[in-house]
Design brief:
Elements (H helix, E strand, L loop, with lengths): L2 E3 L1 H5 L5 H10 L27 E8 L8 E4 L5 E8 H9 L15 E2 L4 H4 L1 E8 L4 H4 L4 H18 L3 E16 L7 E3 L10 E2 L5 E2 L11 E7 L1 H9 L6 E3 L6 E7 L24 E17 L7
Parallel strand pairs: 5-14, 7-12
Antiparallel strand pairs: 1-3, 2-6, 3-4, 4-6, 7-14, 8-13, 9-10, 11-13
Helix pairs in contact: 3-6
Length: 305
């Protein structure tokens, strides 16, 4: 999923979820006329026999002003690109659930023990997939996610000498729960035809964004989406993850209204509570839950290309 961010979207992590979803899916991505031009030499040995690795990889410091441009994209046909991004984001993508790497910042809290430069120093990373991995790379789904994490981990362990372990840490979350029944939450068939304008969400499921210029209030439709996928979508841009505690299985079709955000966003209102979830008999409850956390045991600045 390509992510392109500029100063305004970076500073305002509380973008409307419908807008953020459409933005993440439809925005322009970094164009590379000749990707191999900036790469180093092809790898001769993988960190572990039989483990997928980038065929060619380049990691270089980027000293550009991050308020002008930074982007990350793993939807190109055979490339992973990170432009002017701190290494923490790549670590999150490599070791945590994929959607956490695109969160509004709470994913950073799930990586501990890293030196300051991991979050402050910015790099350009360009990794080209080996020919035998391209077919999987061009798919969407668990196999692509697994391949992405395999090649990123191999790169980090080789170029940054990264070693880490996992622990579970009790952390604040939102629980998505049922508040009442609603006729607007309709069970869908996993193979039913999607409505026109449906866009696939990185977090899973589909969305039909609000069409600019149509009469308010802004509404979005979630066709053929599970509650777990919907909770994951609510997590995107929030200050904490949203976990599904509805107990509802299967896929659903529903539309919800986007509420007007307060004028003063410094009050700490989270994007998820700005949805009128009551329309579909749902609500968010602040609670705590064990979350997977990556502990960095050792890391070095990336080796020269």
């Amino acid at each position: 999923m390509p992510i392109v961010k500029h100063k305004q979207s970076r500073c305002k992590a509380q973008l409307p979820n419908w807008l953020a979803a459409a933005f993440l899916l439809c925005c322009a991505t970094v164009q590379v006329d000749d990707p191999l031009r900036a790469f180093g030499s092809p790898r001769q040995n993988s960190p572990a026999a039989g483990r997928p690795t980038f065929e060619v990889v380049s990691i270089r410091p980027d000293h550009r002003d991050p308020s002008t441009f930074f982007a990350i994209d793993w939807r190109k046909p055979d490339l992973y690109l990170a432009e002017n991004f701190p290494l923490i984001t790549t670590i999150e993508l490599a070791y945590l659930p994929i959607r956490w790497g695109a969160s509004g910042g709470w994913g950073d809290a799930r990586v501990v023990g890293a030196p300051d430069w991991v979050r402050k120093d910015r790099y350009d990373i360009r990794g080209k997939l080996a020919a035998e991995d391209v077919a999987v790379w061009r798919q969407n789904g668990p196999k692509k996610d697994e391949l992405l994490q395999d090649v990123l981990r191999a790169m980090l362990e080789d170029r940054c000498k990264l070693s880490a372990h996992r622990i579970m840490v009790d952390a604040p979350v939102f629980a998505l729960v049922r508040s009442k029944s609603s006729e607007r939450l309709k069970l869908a068939s996993p193979d039913e035809e999607l409505p026109s304008g449906s866009l696939h969400l990185m977090t899973g499921g589909w969305i039909v964004p609000h069409v600019p210029g149509t009469p308010p209030p802004p509404r979005v439709t979630f066709p053929r989406i599970s509650m777990a996928e919907f909770a994951a979508n609510l997590s995107d841009g929030a200050t904490r993850p949203v976990i599904d505690k509805t107990g509802l299985a299967g896929f659903y079709n529903f539309s919800i209204t986007r509420l007007e955000p307060p004028e003063d966003l410094s009050q700490g209102v989270d994007p998820p509570v700005l949805w009128d979830l009551s329309e579909v008999g749902l609500k968010l409850v602040s609670t705590r839950a064990p979350l997977e956390t990556i502990v960095i045991d050792h890391i070095e600045r990336p080796s020269e290309n």
